[in-house]
Amino acid sequence: MAERTAGPYRIRLMFHAADDGGHDHDAHAHHAPAQKFGHLMAFVTDATTGESVPYLPITASVQMKGAPAKRVKLVPMLDGSGLHYGGDIALPSSIQRIVLSIGPTTMRVIGADRARFARLQTAVFEWSASGQ
To answer: CA–CA separation, 119 vs 90, rounded Å?
Structure first.
């Protein structure tokens, strides 16, 4: 688990490997041993209030040594862990970092907070495939 702040957001990024029991990924057991298949989860909260922020377009760019970045769109999900943005992905052993791009919210924001959620934000998470 890693945590960063980007603009008005506090982001907690987690990866649950398929064998962790957190999510059902039996259909994906055919991935190579150099990859760890599972569920990438981004918990995005307002850095000021601590409340979850819905309606955000989020893309994760998995950057690895000697290969083009792999991108996955994270979609809103609700489960026992709460509201998060998630996507199923195989993380290669050569992973170096995951960069989250958080677009402007698609919900209507009124009042003084209108501009807070209107800009693209980026959060970089240095990553070790063995340590996450």
So the answer is: 29
